[in-house]
Amino acid sequence: MHEKHGKPHKTLAPMIRDYSSKQLTLAAFDWPLGTTVDKDNRWVKLAQCIPWDALAHIYYQGFSTNRGSPAKSARLVIGALIIKHKFGYSDEETVLQIQENPYLQYFVGLPGFTTNKPFVPSLFVEIRKRLGASEFEGFHQAIIAAHDKELAKQEAEASDLTPDQTDLQSTLEDREAQPTESASSVEDDTPTHQGQLILDATVVEQVIRFPTDLSLVNEARELSEHIIDGLYPHTPLTKKPRTYRNTARKAYLAIVKQKRPGTKKLRRGLKQQLQYLRRNLRHIDNLLRFWPEGTALPLPRWLLYRYWVIQHLYQQQWQMYQTKARRCDDRIVSISQPYVRPIVRGKQHKAVEFGAKLSVSLDGQGFAQVDELRWEAFHEGHDLPSQVEAYRQRTGYYPEKVIADPIYGNRENRRYLKQKGIYFAGKPLGRPKKETEANRDELKQEKAQRKADYLQRIPIEGKFGQGKQYYQLNKIKAKRKNTSIAWIHSIFLVMNLMILARIFFVCRKYHLTNSMELLKQAGKLIMYRTAHHFIERMVCHPTCIGRLSE
């Protein structure tokens, strides 16, 4: 009876709605205007070269198939990330640009133009939380696979000739030069070393206020006052603890408003703010006694997190004040982002940078890969073996040459590269050879070779400059540790996609130009062969022979 009158079970919608990127053609896109769609638009071209299906497969791996609400399309999500980081838009501006531009809507995979927003801007935060280093590594592999596939396709198109054309091409090559080796001497073994690997490190800065000891302690004091204001109304106390906030604020402004306050004034002001902060922390400890351990506090989560940070900040600042030191381990330079550390780089324009330090590798095709990302300072030379092994894992072979800064050329790395049969482009260790008449030319050639190898490092410096100048790699605006990592990897993803687009369209145009030149040469050879064959027939004709004998 229950089965007869019971409510039927509803069929749940799939959580992952995967649509192939091949389903949407330019002609099928619902265009609202009376004009035709421009097939040469940059977003139409870029959409054609991106391996959407491979990227979607990687993106959906972390999703549940039977739990949660239906997910947004992978092409919509990844396409929005590409648009955002290509122009450096904010989350809100990216959504508005997609809403207003029909070409961007085609790029992200929408079936037609619509005036509705594709999603709310806050979804970008969830996307950055979801994408980790493993997902971006998969994206990088998919881009390299698409690059290799396109190069093979272009080579096949360039060599896809008829038998007569093949004969013409071989004849042209024979006329230019004779082969030096026979076909049987070509080795069929797969190469174990191929290409080159360029290594370097850089720091990508977070968008934070420039930290000073006085400003950090003042901010911590203001947060402690906010915590006291939130806890006091929920206690049975009749008198609110005194914080002297107005006096502390006036003392702080009296120093920071001066153009160049002296060292004694800064030290006196820092001591005052530390004392105010210490008093407030004691008040907070007394107020917390009214809540048993394990009881929820009437404070928002972000403020509880700040309370944990300002306690560590006070300990660090008080220790540095007492010892008159300017550094400490794991120094906090931002209360909202306590994972950020000061990294001394010794640059001419900026001695200290605040952000993540990256170990980056660049292959011969121009694709950049973030191999290591850490928030504290480290010696990038220790990452060389792992970067070389990562290159082998991605490509299947070791590089022929490793080009890097002299800091990478320590004895351990040189020994490792020598074992693997890899050439290190760097100055040899030890005392330089004494120049004599016998080895003068040899030393000059070695010096010229080292200079040429060192100049080959320019592409990776240009890659850093491109990312920081055009893609805002030096202005990471994410507020969390994991979202900052996703932000950095997204910028490198966009830069690699631009390399892929260049291979798809610029190199294809180059191959077509070479094909046209080959056809022109083939036409000239046809005319030459026809004329030569005609002369041979005329000369060998009996009538011509008789005339020549006369």
Structural account:
- There is one protein chain.
- By secondary structure, the chain is α/β, with parallel strands linked by helices.
- Among the domains are: 12-130, no CATH class; 213-323, no CATH class; 342-428 and 443-480, no CATH class.
- The chain is built from 19 helices and 6 strands.
- It has helices at residues 2-5, 42-49, 52-59, 74-87, 91-100, 102-107, 123-130, 133-159, 163-176, 213-231, 245-256, 263-288, 301-323, 384-395, 411-420, 440-455, 458-470, 481-540, 542-549; strands at residues 196-205, 342-344, 352-362, 368-374, 401-403, 423-425.
- Strands 1, 2, 3, 4, 5 and 6 form a 6-stranded mixed β-sheet that branches.
- Helix 15 links the parallel strand 5 and strand 6.
- The longest helix has 60 residues, at 481-540.
- The N and C termini lie far apart (121 Å).
- Residues 1-7, 9-13, 165-188 and 522-550 have low confidence and may be disordered.
Entry keywords:
19 helices, 550 residues, disordered C terminus, six-stranded mixed beta sheet, alpha/beta, disordered N terminus
Order of helices and strands: HHHHHHHHHEHHHHEEEHEHEHHHH
Oligomer: single chain
Beta-strand portion reads 5-15%
Distance between the termini: 121 Å
Radius of gyration: 34 Å
What is the tally of beta strands? 6
- Assign a percent range to the helix content: 40-55%
Report the uncertain regions.
Answer: 1-7, 9-13, 165-188, 522-550
The SS-based structural class is: alpha/beta
> What sort of overall outline do the alpha carbons produce when their principal axes are compared?
flat
List the total number of helices: 19
Mean pLDDT over the full residue set: 81
Reported for the largest beta sheet, the result is:
6 strands, mixed
